[in-house]
Amino acid sequence: MVKFAVVVFPGTNCDFETERAIRKAGAEAERVWYKTSLKDFDGVVLPGGFSYADYLRAGAIAARQEIMEEVKEFARDGRPVLGICNGFQILTESGLLPGALRPNKVPRFICRWVHLKVADTETPFTQLYEPGETIRMPIAHAEGNYYVDEPSKVRVVFQYSDEKGNITEEANPNGSLLNIAAVANEKGNVLGTMPHPERASDRFLGSEDGLRLFRSMVEWARR
Amino acid sequence: MRWKVKVIVRLKEGLNDPEGRVIQKALRNLGFNVENLRVPKYFEFELESEKPEEEAEEMCRKLLANPLIHEWEYSVEPVS
């Protein structure tokens, strides 16, 4: 059975839910303290939270820890690397994904459900979604305002949209460029998402749309 | 040799600074005619080094700033 590492930094707080969602999607998952080695795993997930209390910039200090060298190896080898919220911030800060996540345009913490348009179903994380589909997931962040120098070169995976999938300014909660909510690297095996799929992985949470992301990832890692 | 290093990291010109915008609005509400308020980050520390400028530059590039969105400046003076 494929096995995913859920990396825990000081201040990470979405590790248990993420571990649970991966298991529900059919793989093994283990929470791993950031000073542990990642060998024996088939993929890595950097969960949400507030690593190092988000001091300096969200994700900046976690991105410079030794374990990230191993995460970079995973990325280079084409194995799946998923960063959720703070994990996305860590991936941009470490250079594994292009761009930066700046403070929200409305300068406060935003925690609510959003609609997302699935813009790319060709990645290991989105292969079980329908092209152009609209899904629901929650966001919870203060620094999710995505910026990049050359947007045309970025692989956009989710965009904030209205219920019908229209990409409008009103549907953009944080001021992200082009309503970007999730991006992948060129190969597609590294994904950063501000919305939390693990918080939309059970009907009692209000949506199961996020579970398909983990199912896609697990199915792909099995091959 | 021991140096006192002062570093300022600020958002590049043209990038929106939400914190600055809120503070500016609050100052304007107090009656001050403030414009273009930005909130840079200021660091100061002592550094034992033979090449403090080079190391300060490296620190900005590697951690203190995000080169994609920030610019920075620093000054270095000997600790007496």
TrEMBL record, chain A:
SUPFAM superfamilies: Class I glutamine amidotransferase-like
UniProt cross-references to CDD domains, sorted A to Z: GATase1_FGAR_AT (cd01740)
Pathway: Purine metabolism; IMP biosynthesis via de novo pathway; 5-amino-1-(5-phospho-D-ribosyl)imidazole from N(2)-formyl-N(1)-(5-phospho-D-ribosyl)glycinamide: step 1/2
Keywords: ATP-binding, Cytoplasm, Glutamine amidotransferase, Hydrolase, Ligase, Nucleotide-binding, Purine biosynthesis
Active-site residues, Swiss-Prot/TrEMBL: 85 (nucleophile), 196, 198
SMART domains: GATase_5
InterPro entries documented for this protein: Class_I_gatase-like, PRibForGlyAmidine_synth_PurQ
GO MF assignments: ATP binding; glutaminase activity; phosphoribosylformylglycinamidine synthase activity
One record GO biological process: 'de novo' IMP biosynthetic process
CC annotations in GO: cytoplasm
This protein's record includes keyword Cytoplasm: yes
Keyword Metal-binding in annotation: no
Localization annotation: Cytoplasm
HAMAP family cross-referenced by the UniProt entry: PurQ
Quaternary structure and partners: Part of the FGAM synthase complex composed of 1 PurL, 1 PurQ and 2 PurS subunits.
Biological role stated in the UniProt entry: Part of the phosphoribosylformylglycinamidine synthase complex involved in the purines biosynthetic pathway. Catalyzes the ATP-dependent conversion of formylglycinamide ribonucleotide (FGAR) and glutamine to yield formylglycinamidine ribonucleotide (FGAM) and glutamate. The FGAM synthase complex is composed of three subunits. PurQ produces an ammonia molecule by converting glutamine to glutamate. PurL transfers the ammonia molecule to FGAR to form FGAM in an ATP-dependent manner.
NCBIfam families per record: FGAM_synth_I, PRK03619.1
Identification of the protein by name: Phosphoribosylformylglycinamidine synthase subunit PurQ
Organism whose genome encodes this protein: Thermococcus profundus
Automatic annotation (TrEMBL), chain B:
GO BP annotations listed: 'de novo' IMP biosynthetic process
Location within or outside the cell: Cytoplasm
GO cellular component: cytoplasm
Signal peptide (residue range): none
A single GO molecular function term of this UniProt record: phosphoribosylformylglycinamidine synthase activity
Domain of life of the native organism: Archaea
Keyword terms: ATP-binding, Cytoplasm, Ligase, Nucleotide-binding, Purine biosynthesis
EC number(s) given by UniProt: 6.3.5.3
InterPro entries linked: PurS, PurS-like_sf
Major location (coarse): cytoplasm
Pathway: Purine metabolism; IMP biosynthesis via de novo pathway; 5-amino-1-(5-phospho-D-ribosyl)imidazole from N(2)-formyl-N(1)-(5-phospho-D-ribosyl)glycinamide: step 1/2
Annotated catalysed reactions: N(2)-formyl-N(1)-(5-phospho-beta-D-ribosyl)glycinamide + L-glutamine + ATP + H2O = 2-formamido-N(1)-(5-O-phospho-beta-D-ribosyl)acetamidine + L-glutamate + ADP + phosphate + H(+)
Subunit structure: Part of the FGAM synthase complex composed of 1 PurL, 1 PurQ and 2 PurS subunits.
Stated role: Part of the phosphoribosylformylglycinamidine synthase complex involved in the purines biosynthetic pathway. Catalyzes the ATP-dependent conversion of formylglycinamide ribonucleotide (FGAR) and glutamine to yield formylglycinamidine ribonucleotide (FGAM) and glutamate. The FGAM synthase complex is composed of three subunits. PurQ produces an ammonia molecule by converting glutamine to glutamate. PurL transfers the ammonia molecule to FGAR to form FGAM in an ATP-dependent manner.
UniProt similarity note: Belongs to the PurS family.
PANTHER family: PHOSPHORIBOSYLFORMYLGLYCINAMIDINE SYNTHASE SUBUNIT PURS
Official protein name in the record: Phosphoribosylformylglycinamidine synthase subunit PurS
Gene behind this protein: purS
